[in-house]
Amino acid sequence: DGANEKSLETFRKRPGTADGGSVKSQKGGQNMSLVTTKEMLNDARDRHYAVGAFNVENMEMVQAVLAAAERLRAPVIMQTTPSAIKYAGADYFYGNVFAAAKDACVPVALHLDHGSDYSLAVQAVRAGYTSIMIDGSKMPLESNIQITRKVTELCSSIGIPVEAELGKVGGKEDDLEAGPGEAYTDPGEAEYFVEQTGISSLAVAIGTAHGFYQGEPELDLQRLSDIKRRVSVPLVLHGASGVPAEAVAESIRRGICKVNYATELRAAYTGAVRETLENQPELIDPKIFGKAGRERVTEQVMEKMKVCGCAGKV
Ligand code: G3H
Ligand code: ZN
Predict the structure, then answer these.
(1) Which residue in 1, 91, 113, 175 is the catalytic one?
(2) Phi, psi torsion values for 192, nearest 5 degrees
(3) pLDDT for 26
(4) Is the pLDDT of residue 35 over 80?
(5) Would residue 113 show up in a list of annotated catalytic residues for this protein?
(6) Which of 135, 243, 261, 304 to mutate to test the pocket of ligand 1 (most atoms within 8 A of CB)?
(7) Cα(7) to centroid of ligand 1, in Å?
(8) Which pLDDT band, with edges at 50, 70 and 90, does 18 fall under?
(9) With contact defined as beta carbons under 8 Å apart, do 169 and 137 qualify?
(10) Which residue's alpha carbon is at the smallest distance from atom 2 of ligand 1?
(11) Is 0.85 surpassed by the pTM of this model?
């Protein structure tokens, strides 16, 4: 509504990047702005697919993800962890992703992944991020509710959706050590958590872990179905790198609407850069190996989008 739009404009450093207040490009592209993940994920839930959410670490990865989304006509979420923001700053990621989105023919959202505290959420929103995760999953339930509610109170007043996590996804995400993922999401607790926090989407722990797996991960799909039965907001799968395509597809059939990929993209980018430099030891032009990395990431992302079922949804 009008009041919300106004407070959003006052709060943000960047004008009009959330839904309802698009920034128009001069070049006449079709979409021309960053959108929030709210409509994206609700559409995915209603039409039984998942939106791929891809962690980006530099400009080439942003370009690569956008290229894949446009080629497949898929809505797309680009996201950055706290350590990526520490590395380059939220403004740089906003600048890169906005540049990618402004003339894109597909909707693009910029999401804070594993937001560690309230002030980082504020920083990201002020920079122009259109979706926020607050990750209090390592805290006891009531503390998780408290921190999450603080962020949803802020974000709901300015039209920004919030993802939170309940249960523990294991492994290591950047410099965030989650420990062993022994604590899967309890369906009853999930219902209570969503009610108490007013979140827009819920990340669940059902047996995935961040980083590469040793052996094949086994997902607790029954648990996922039980959570889905009790919770109406879209569900999010973390740690999808290395999870077999069929397991991801089955989890989408059971209610997952957003699938997060990071490790495999890093490996794709760095692998292509490494090969290029090994093959051409005299090479000094960063554009040459950057392009190789970029192309490899595009291929990888297209593959993942097909698994998610988001290809052709725009
Ligand atoms: O939040 C990011 C994802 O959960 C990434 O997990 O590195 O295993 O793909 P991944
Ligand atoms: Zn994650």
Answers:
(1) 113
(2) -60, -45
(3) 36
(4) yes
(5) yes
(6) 261
(7) 33
(8) very low
(9) yes
(10) 260
(11) yes
